[in-house]
Amino acid sequence: MRYILTFLLLTFFISCNSQDVYQEFHENGQLKFEVPLIDGKKEGLGKTYFDDGELKIEAQYKNDQLNGRLVQYYYGRTIKEVNYKDGKLDGYAIYYSPAKLPTKEGTYKDGKMHGKWKIYEDNGCLRFEYTYQNDIKEGPYKVFYCSGELETTAYWKDGLPMGLMVSYNKEGDTVGVGLWTIRDGVRTFLEDTSYTSKGKPSFTVEEDNGKYYYWMNGVRTEGRKIE
Prior knowledge:
It contains one helix and 24 strands. It is mainly β. The N and C termini lie far apart (about 100 Å).
């Protein structure tokens, strides 16, 4: 009986101008949640509060489900901004760090990550860019230097890197190439290490006026051709 009385004390329906308002309260008596009701269903802007009265969540409801924008706060600081459709995450979403900088942003579809997602470092610089399909990494993948230049390009399939992976220095020169493959059911990474940090092949052979030279890490040395 005590539990039933507690529930009755913490939950109220308020009628106002033929529109009801549903409310829940914290044990200390502070308002916890309120939302308009139409024909007994949540409809319009709902608000959730911490037990000290600070606003925690603002969200739009339609036909008793989350529909539209939801913003979550932590004592005045925005934690996330997302969108819902028929009770599921759908559309653009962005999440923030305690420093009020973005940590990740992208799009949802039918409750799952779908499309391009960007991941940021703690200082706010863009670091990774993934492509998702139904919560699984699928498609182009990019890594960036914090100064903005492209560092790595690759491709993901079924949640794993697959195919060509290329690395660049900040000047845009290729400094590494690798290939993810599956051999006999085993994933293998084949790396071409023939690049220096300046984007030049670390070992090449050239012919000049009948003489042969090889370049090793940027140093040209005379050699001879082996028949």
